[in-house]
Amino acid sequence: MTAKMKYKVASLFSGCGGMDLGSEGGFEFLGKKYPELGTKIVYAMDFDKPITDIYNSNFSRKCEHVDIRKLKSEDMPEHDILTGGFPCQSFSVVAQNPKRLGYKDDRGKLFFEMCRILKDKQPSVFVAENVKGLLSANEGETFPLILKEFEKAGYWIKYKILNASHYGVPQKRERVFIVGFRDQAAFERFEFPVPVTEADPVPIAKIVQACEEVEEKHFFSQKAVMGMANTKHAKTMNKGRAQELNAPCNTVGAHLAKVSINSTDPVLKINGRYRMFTPREVARIQSFPDTFLLTGSRTVNYKALGNAVAPVVMWHVTKKIIQALEG
Ligand SMILES: C[S@@+](CC[C@H](N)C(=O)[O-])C[C@H]1O[C@@H](n2cnc3c(N)ncnc32)[C@H](O)[C@@H]1O
Is residue 1 part of a domain? Predict the structure, then answer.
């Protein structure tokens, strides 16, 4: 690690590396430079092999293919910052006195795995990213318990919902970022990044591929379009799903490979024809640079990109963390 690279980062649930690209910096998006932040990823992991393959095509370090439940913290290198967007669909709140977090199926446990690693490794900072719905899950009962668990691991916590479209990303994606510091003074110095493009967001028009670059398979058939015209969605189609070209896109999810013209997922209407976004357009909507390689099948690309943390948002958050650490 060079003198410039001061902070070692370990990444959990790394996916295709959106969060990792953002926490390191050193990329360009829509003509703007996001310089290196003085951080270096020293560890990355995910249990979805095809998704780790995308990661490994893009970064010189390797994303380990491992299930976090089998990961021993002593096998991870020492690090200053731990990052991870833990999957979380299934928390329940166990009615005890005091109430505590339980889980309805296996996926909810993964949060505790992140806490386990924090307790064992005690990095100076952690960053967790998750869907906004985490704040209201179980009628708002889950989130304070999650914060309590992080506090029990030894951290001072701040959290905020950030809208990617406020940070130069052409997407209205709202996600909660939870940042924890071991040092109280650094915690007090830390502030979430102020919006930079709230009043003037980047429109989809900036990222749409030229017609000749888009393969025919991305277009919906005339039959599907006629079928949609006969449904109750017909009147709202233009407002709700076919995206305004002069505004940021609605949130892209992990299942865009299966998008149908009748679903609520965003689609495009260009020159009178409806089509789905291409994987490259989804990558741009998520603020990945065009140099980011999309290897593997389209289905895997859509899944990995739709699940990713927007690199540009993560870059802004990491920059603020480093400022707080350095006083
Ligand atoms: C929200 S995505 C992470 C996206 C990533 N942070 C990014 O920015 O590209 C969550 C990831 O957790 C992974 N995952 C789910 N359960 C896991 C487990 N038990 N062990 C390891 N990874 C797991 C999934 O494969 C998925 O890639």
Answer: no
Residue 2 resides in a domain: no
Distance in angstroms (rounded) separating the CA atoms of residues 201 and 267 = 19
In ligand 1, the atom with minimum distance to the C-alpha of 69 is 19
Q: Is 80 in the pocket of ligand 1 (CB under 6 A)?
A: no
Total number of domains constituting the chain: 2
> Does 237 have pLDDT greater than 60?
no
The residue contributing the CA closest to ligand 1 atom 3 is: 15
Q: Write out the residue range of the structural domain in which residue 251 sits.
A: 204-288+295-301
Residue-wise pLDDT for 299-322, tens only, equals 999 999 999 999 999 999 999 999
Which member of 88, 115, 211, 249 is catalytic? Answer: 88
Q: 306: Cβ below 6 Å to ligand 1?
A: no
51 domain residue, yes or no = yes
**C-alpha distances in Å from residue 7, one per residue of 39, 58, 85, 251:** 5, 21, 20, 31
| Residues 20 and 88 placed together within one structural domain of the fold | yes
Torsion of CA 68, 6, 316, 241, to 10 degrees: -30
Whole-prediction pTM value?
0.94
Confidence of residue 240 (pLDDT cuts 50, 70, 90): very low
* Atom number in ligand 1 closest to CA 48: 25
